[in-house]
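Re: your question from the hallway

Yes, I did run it. Sequences:
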Amino acid sequence: MNTLARPLRRHQALERLLHPASIAVIGASPRPGAFGSAVLRNLGGYRGRVYPVNARYQEIGELACYPSIGAVPDRVDCALIATAREAVEPIARECVAAGVGGAIVFASGYAETGQPERVAEQVRLAAIARDSGMALLGPNTVGMVNALVGAAITFMDITPVPSPAPRAVGLISQSGALGMALAQAVTRGVSFSHVLTSGNSCDIDMADCVAYLADDPACAVIACLFEGMSEPERLLAAAELAWQADKPLVVYKMATGEEGATAALSHTGSLAGSYAAYRAAFRRAGVVLVEDYESLIPTASFFAKAPKPTAPGVAIVAASGGAAIMAADRAQQHGVPLPQPNPAVRAILEARIPEFGSARNPCDVTAQVINDPNSLIECVEALLAAPEYGALAMPAVYSSEASTRFIPVYDDLAGRYGKIICSPWQSEWRDGPGAKEREQARNVALFPTVNSCFAALAAANWRAGRRVGPRHAGWRRQQRRIWRRGRSPPLPPRC
Amino acid sequence: MNTLARPLRRHQALERLLHPASIAVIGASPRPGAFGSAVLRNLGGYRGRVYPVNARYQEIGELACYPSIGAVPDRVDCALIATAREAVEPIARECVAAGVGGAIVFASGYAETGQPERVAEQVRLAAIARDSGMALLGPNTVGMVNALVGAAITFMDITPVPSPAPRAVGLISQSGALGMALAQAVTRGVSFSHVLTSGNSCDIDMADCVAYLADDPACAVIACLFEGMSEPERLLAAAELAWQADKPLVVYKMATGEEGATAALSHTGSLAGSYAAYRAAFRRAGVVLVEDYESLIPTASFFAKAPKPTAPGVAIVAASGGAAIMAADRAQQHGVPLPQPNPAVRAILEARIPEFGSARNPCDVTAQVINDPNSLIECVEALLAAPEYGALAMPAVYSSEASTRFIPVYDDLAGRYGKIICSPWQSEWRDGPGAKEREQARNVALFPTVNSCFAALAAANWRAGRRVGPRHAGWRRQQRRIWRRGRSPPLPPRC
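Structure:
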């Protein structure tokens, strides 16, 4: 990392900004519709101290309002600058003078306009931050959420992000609106520790945010919605920190084509770069690159739940033969081995599954077994116990209240065997009964598509193989062998 | 079609079975949990005459029950055989003797078991149907829905399918559970005329069903979840009927790999065939082949709404720069041209969009314009009116009640200009506010992913080009030209 033009900021350097004990809202306002009013509303659940700053008011709601940041009688960790662009630069200097830990700048109209004087304005803003050491998020950001302290520092009318579960996702997005749209996964129970939107990233960029989250114990997995950056080596260095911290870094790269790259330049002023180059570099760095925007959060949520696979093989268990077929298609496409069950497991399956089902892998237990829960539970337990399988894939076909009944049972079973059950959702009732129940189960991962499910399982195997280090190639050869033979080899150490 | 081993059944030949005025439930039962009980419950909304048949009962609920199909004092159009497999064959013969129009067989355990005597049993069942001319759906089917007459002839506890809208989707699936899971799109307002699950397809197969729907005025678009069949030429011949009827035929092909194909054989006894061969044949036949299961219904619903494109170009309008970038990425990937707006339109955009947005295509109107609905409406109207655009893509980024307010305005505008507005859904709140409202709008198409949205737009352009006939190649060349030049050519005739 010595070769980076700017070293990565680590946790301590950003802690006051991103995990503040006190927040000043500069441009606070009681006027509905104003940014400064929306932020105060969003800070209603904040468990720190809030200081509105605006010379026009003595108080806003129940809070005393201060004429300037310098007048606030407390150490301010995070100063939100919610003013028009023209006022930002002098205020940023005042923040430095007041010893503020970090600042967030909402205003747009900087480098993303492409106008030379606006680019220069952004460079000056960045210089204020760098010269002083005051961290700066933005400009052109919609803000951030730190769920640990209930700080939703944004003007958007966002869905509240509750306190994180023990293994939460830290989300970083250059795009503000998309970042907040992804965070709406809280509505079905995905847990986030942080939602950071970096906008034009003139000072703190996505790489700094990744480095910060790599150090943060509340974040188990890092998800990035990434456009591009001028020094991609920074992101790769941050990826190495995430790898060392054993936190999967899941990335969706936007602006993969020429049209998208042109648009990115006028969005956050980002250099999109070559997608092929990014893809290769990410792979070398151990980054899980998802091929669809819509797979980013489900894949991150999967990694937040999944233990390291104890075997690369996956057993498919479906109540619908059609679902079993589609799962097998995608397993093959992504190179996920589907070993056949060992004789003892096979005997259990054959005893339970009717002749018109399929007691092999993929396993079609048929609707008959679904209606006889004990049979299904026995089949699932036998497969979870089998050493040849590192995970189960159980497609969620039809959404109904009845189908949710046994999710806690499968969840417990999976936990007992230290494996994950992956459920691609196959009903067009997208948030129908069973979706939330799966997402909220500790050992069940919900996917919106069959493809994203097996891409994630393949990525988990790949990460496990990469962790083995020099034996990586051997592991890959083993995977190919078991794919052909249909059974699992003994596992390499540390995996 | 003279070369087919079995000619396709057309509408008239299947009408009594698939659009029945009277239904007999053989194996009817008052016992909760029995197939024959579930079917009677599902027929609660049926607008025809229902006759339970079971020698054990004199009446079931308020209906008289008959000892045999021959004892029913009415012409029975559709006989549902809800008995165990062993009883099916003699009952099927009784149905023939009673002059029944068609039969549905739920029982499993036929050719899908792979056992020679069971294969023979299925062959005999098929012979009963063919020799008599009585149409037979199944065996190993979960049944069907004809929404025109409210007939849900299935044992599954399905989400009710309401009376179809004027341009409804006809859905056909070999897999029963997946077919019903796809039909759960009714929960957000997708309209279905029929849901037909063909199971082992021993008599009526997917090709017959396509031919039937091609003739049915209630169905505007045909969606197929397809595993495979022994005589694929039949499906291609049916596709030709759909093409002649100007009904898009949208197919997802399962069992694309070797593992999936093996599973298909034990699911519905289908020969999966080579995916590459199917893909090529479908393309020649004008079939829209979707690459993901999850795109099938959204693509069909799009085609049910979309007028023929008057130009291949698409304008992207987003309130989020990130959403604009991703849309542009996928447009390029699928070869959907993004011509730049003509000078008059550009002037309107520039007057409305702030400098930090983008008054080009893709168009980033920014959050500022979203908060000034009149500006956005003017931009949208200018783009809809521009001859260089056949459709608009407006990503739905953040799900909120506020975002739903203007959907009716855009819907009306799109209708006025005879174009469709496509909305890829980008919030992780999958059924959040705005999803239903878009799905239910006449001129707005909702997509679960950016990729499926542009794949569908590309397919609509491709179909329009194919309809031009011999000038197809010229149309393709034009498309390539405008992609480079960024503007639309005059359109070929008839498109």
